[in-house]
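Q: Got a minute? One more chain.
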Amino acid sequence: MEGLEKGKLYICPTPIGNLEDITLRVLRVLKEVDAIAAEDTRHSIKLLRHFDIQKPLISYHEHNEQTKSEYLIDRLLNGDSIALVSDAGMPGISDPGEILIKRCIEGGIDIEVLPGATAGILALVASGLDTRRFSFEGFLDRGKKGRRQRLEEIELEDRSLIFYEAPHRIHTTLKDMLEILGNRKAVVARELTKKHEEFIRGNLEEIYEQLQENPPKGEMVLICEGISQDTLLARKEKAFEDISIKQHIISFMESGISKKDAIKEVAKTRNIPKSQVYKEAIDL
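A: Always. Here it is, folded:
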């Protein structure tokens, strides 16, 4: 860390529950840097004391991220090395850090991201749902309108969906999901890596009813399966009930593509043979 004209920013993941999950590399870096930028200094000081690390702490959270980023950039440009930590997990993932990382890249400051715990990935792997392809959604909008709008936008997403949610909003979120996404398989993971780690499995309706009877505590991860191909096909067929194949071809052609390409798109969209579409396009 010595001999550099500019300092370096270290992105240091912290345990999401069990303190044993911190890596030896993260501990070494935290002991070597000049300062540590923390989401909640009161929370981070407990972690540092546990591992006997004494370094200056800088408050860096969502409410001061813009202004504190400038301060941290100045220190990095003057040669200081700084570690960024969040309360739990990987900084920058549903936690402050994204702005600072962008500013470092723009300013030619080196960044080193250390591997570590991420609640969303842990919950996905343990969910039993499809892990080959997934979409990380993080926290949905706290307002009903914004939350429902986002759910409507991802209604036809066929990848597994990863959400973070707080206990006082989980019921309304599950209710909105039921209405918009349908009754899909899902898993709620809470208290991850802690003594009372719990996975609540079932479909959205079953989980909603269970959490109504036993209100949960602590932030949690909600994993929901993507739309099935059968459901997606049924919805596509329903969407085109009121438009003929010929009208569908014309609508594509009016968007500027050739009749040949329009035939391909209609066949693909409606999941029917191209020959069937071609017959409708002969006189166009």
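A: The longest helix spans residues 65-77.
Q: Perfect, thanks.
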